[in-house]
Write a structure and sequence with these properties.
TonB-dependent receptor; cell outer membrane; 22-stranded antiparallel beta barrel; five-stranded mixed beta sheet; tonb box; mainly beta; single chain; globular; Beta-barrel_TonB; transmembrane beta strand; Maltoporin, Chain A
Length: 764
């Protein structure tokens, strides 16, 4: 690990040298707040600076000694960011893969990810919406509407944000009611008959009561033409969502806000294509590799070229990916003078029904179905305050999650699997039933103390106790609907049932130093410990993977992160430059290993290190340049890639290099009572693996994508915008599944093609 320690040391040394070289300025007090009106006050004082709540209090982005990237709602709008997944291409070190028609997402930060497709699994990168935790992976991909700000926090954040923030978190802050009437309406039309309507209105209802209503409608036709006769195109979407908020300012010190939201999303069959792949066997008949090959698959189907927007799926429907999200929350904030006390109560329900053509071909081999319902309840009580030279946070948190998940195979009539089961005429469904209860209770505290006028230290701790109960059954069921995983009438038991109860205690912590070399230069160094609880493997109905009962439950993981960096502001606020380095020492990394048509998690140790840089520059009025770069070295040790075969591998969705950039310009000319806005942006990633076994067929090539926007906005709030994403119509893969031993093929999913939109809007 000496090389990694030297990396962070070099970053800190560089930051120190830059600080010494900087022109001397006085050290002003850090602007921050924790009271009821702190956000509005600090935003008014900050000008163009972005305000964040990454440490559970309001601070300017450049005053936070954490690796955090933040984007205002206005920045999201001008950059045409419409989904939670799109945020990844704006942020170095954050990576996302979306598949299954787009309704599931795997978010990776600095190589920390979990791409297990089980609906009972939580990821190591937490997602928060309006200060509430999203407890399932299928709920992490959603449309963005009426968003005030997005914050991407990198590195363990468990001290203040709790469980499963091992790799970091993405925090979506919604626009809230105010005592003035505000709102917007926006409509757009674009490629593949895409239509998006979005709007919100809020303001006073009575003297002490405010409200806000937000709506979203988003749909598009399939963008992959399905050549199979009578079957719909794939890649389509139809989403409708809404949010209502009611806020009561009971007194000057007490504010109560209730929220409720619902989203209905219907997506087509997963936008996968098939490619020919061939397994590689060693002398003992073990699969130790997989290669991409030309020619037909083992099913006799010759895959279509990836350059064409065409597929040939015999199993397809326009609503094969159905998701329903329901949410209700109560936020109570009380300003006690010396402390801000907050209580947040939240209930969520996420339901999902998903169907996938396993071989993504015209052959009726086998299909996969998933049904799931995840219901959660959480209660948080915390206090934040400031006394003399200290800023402190204290709190307790309770979370309960109940997941009912069904996953299995659809053996449709007259198909290969149905014939093998002897039910060719009727078909059958083979399904696993999982029932998982998780209860978690934690207490946390953090204090930041000013050790000297320019130096402060932070120490924090969260202690977590978790209970789990898991039940597993596997049966063959009577087929009642070819386009549904049926689990009503069981006809045979496929595997022995399994039940388990367990509890565990673990902790997360933080120790950090911040040094303000001057008012425009922050140097920081930290040690963070992140922790994520364990979960359960399960076999598919065919008995794969070959796990013994003691391999069903797997352990929690622990990440010890060392980080150092600087944040600097130059040219009287016209430029910022941030630089950092980090080292990760991972124990029991939860490595998901996909093989054939199933997978399992194995605990292994891992080491990662890297660096990141971000800058913004506004050299003249109206012109802004921004960009970022991340470099990552990552290794998971001694991973079992075949029975008795172990090797060091790179984690999934962890490219060695990512870069993003943007140039925007507002000419100093008035046009029709408004101003023109011009922008181009780009995102680039090096190659990465979609499977932790790191076979040749698992490697996805790097790609570079550009976009462009031109808009007009009047002083009265009217706007017109034209935008193109994937400007040069690049074909690039985003994820895949290796099925070499099943069909001599693999599934790959592609990013969207060139996509233009024209939109009109009004803000008030």
């Amino acid at each position: 690990m000496n090389y990694a320690h030297r990396s962070v040391g070099a970053v800190i040394a560089m930051a120190s040298l830059v600080g010494v070289a900087a022109h001397a300025k006085g050290v002003g007090a850090k602007e921050e707040g924790y009271g009821t009106a702190a956000v509005e006050t600090l935003e008014a004082d900050a000008g163009d600076a972005i305000v964040v709540t990454a440490q559970r209090r309001v601070q300017k982005l450049q005053d936070v000694g954490i690796a955090v990237s933040a984007f205002s709602g206005e920045q999201l709008r001008t950059r045409q960011i419409s989904s939670s997944i799109d945020v990844a291409r704006m942020t170095p070190g954050v990576f996302a893969s979306s598949s299954n028609g787009g309704q599931t997402a795997s978010i990776s930060i600095r190589g920390v990810t979990q791409n297990d497709s089980s609906d009972a699994v939580e990821g190591p990168v937490a997602v928060y919406v309006d200060e509430t935790y999203v407890p399932s992976l299928q709920g992490q991909g959603f449309g963005l509407f009426d968003i005030e700000r997005v914050e991407a926090l990198k590195g363990p954040q468990g001290t203040l944000f709790g469980r499963n923030a091992t790799g970091g978190l993405v925090n979506f802050v919604i626009a809230k009611p105010s005592d003035t009437v505000t709102g917007y309406a926006n409509g757009s039309y674009g490629s593949f008959d895409s239509v998006k309507l979005e709007g919100a209105i809020g303001g006073p209802i009575a003297e002490t009561v405010q409200g806000r209503i937000s709506l979203l409608y988003n749909r598009n036709n399939g963008w992959l033409k399905n050549l199979y006769p009578g079957k719909p195109d794939v890649g389509g979407e139809d989403t409708l969502g809404g949010r209502a908020q009611l806020q009561w300012q009971a007194t000057d010190a007490l504010k109560v806000r209730a929220t409720a939201s619902a989203v209905r999303s219907d997506l087509s069959t997963g936008a996968y294509n098939s490619i020919s792949t061939q397994p590689v066997f060693d002398g003992q008949g073990r699969v130790v590799g997989a290669d991409r090959v030309s020619g037909p698959t083992a099913l006799g189907f010759t895959p279509l070229p990836g350059s064409r927007l065409e597929v040939n799926h015999d199993f397809a429907c326009s609503d094969c990916g159905r998701t329903r999200l329901y949410d209700a929350a109560l936020h109570v904030d009380y300003d006690a003078g010396g402390a801000q006390i907050s209580a947040i109560t939240n209930w969520k329900r996420i339901t999902k029904a998903l169907l996938i053509d396993v071989d993504s071909s015209p052959v009726n081999l086998v299909d996969v179905g998933q049904n799931a319902q995840t219901e959660s309840f959480s209660q948080e009580l915390r206090a934040t305050g400031k006394a003399d030279r200290a800023v402190w946070n204290l709190g307790v948190y309770y979370l309960q999650i109940h997941t009912l998940a069904q996953m299995g195979f659809l053996a449709r009539p007259n198909g290969i699997l149905a014939g093998a089961l002897g039910v060719s005429g009727t078909g059958a469904d083979l399904a696993n039933l999982q029932d998982l209860w998780t209860r978690s209770f934690s207490g946390f505290g953090q204090i930041e103390y000013k050790l000297a006028p320019r130096l402060s230290g932070t120490i924090g701790l969260r202690v977590i106790h978790e209970w789990q109960r898991y039940d597993f059954q596997s049966s063959q069921f009577q087929n009642q609907n070819d386009y549904k995983l049926d689990t009503a009438i069981a006809v045979a038991t496929l595997q022995p049932s399994y039940a388990n109860k367990r509890s565990d205690s673990f902790w997360a912590g933080k120790a950090a130093l911040e040094y303000h070399a001057n008012r425009d230069m922050l140097l920081y160094a930290s040690i963070n410990r992140g922790a994520k609880g364990g979960n359960y493997n399960s076999k598919l109905p065919d008995g794969s993977p070959p796990l013994s009962p003691d391999e069903f439950a797997y352990k929690g993981e622990t990440l010890l992160a060392y980080e150092g960096g600087m944040k600097s502001t130059w040219l009287d606020g016209k430029a910022t430059f941030n630089l950092l380095g980090f080292i990760y020492d991972y124990s029991n990394y939860q490595a998901f290993t996909f093989s054939n048509a199933s997978g399992f998690v194995q605990n292994r140790d891992a080491n990662l290190y890297g660096g990141e840089a971000e800058f913004t520059l506004r050299p003249v009025e109206g012109l802004e340049l921004s960009g970022g770069l991340s470099l990552l070295h990552a290794k998971v040790k001694n991973v079992q890639v075949a029975t008795g075969v172990y090797k060091d591998v790179r984690p999934t969705f962890a490219p060695k290099r990512q870069a993003n950039g943007r140039i925007s310009y507002r000419p100093p000319l008035e046009v029709a009572g408004g101003h023109i806005n011009l922008a181009v942006d780009g995102y680039s990633t090096s190659s990465f693996y979609q499977n932790i076994r790191n076979f040749a067929a698992h490697k996805i090539s790097g790609h570079t994508i550009f976009g462009a926007q031109v808009g007009w906005e009047s002083a009265s709030g009217f706007s017109l915008t034209g935008a193109v994403s994937n400007l040069f119509d690049k074909r690039y893969e985003i994820t895949g599944f290796d099925l070499s031993t099943l069909c001599g093929c693999s599934e790959v999913a592609y990013g969207k093609p060139r996509w233009w939109t024209i939109s009109a809007g009004f803000r008030f």
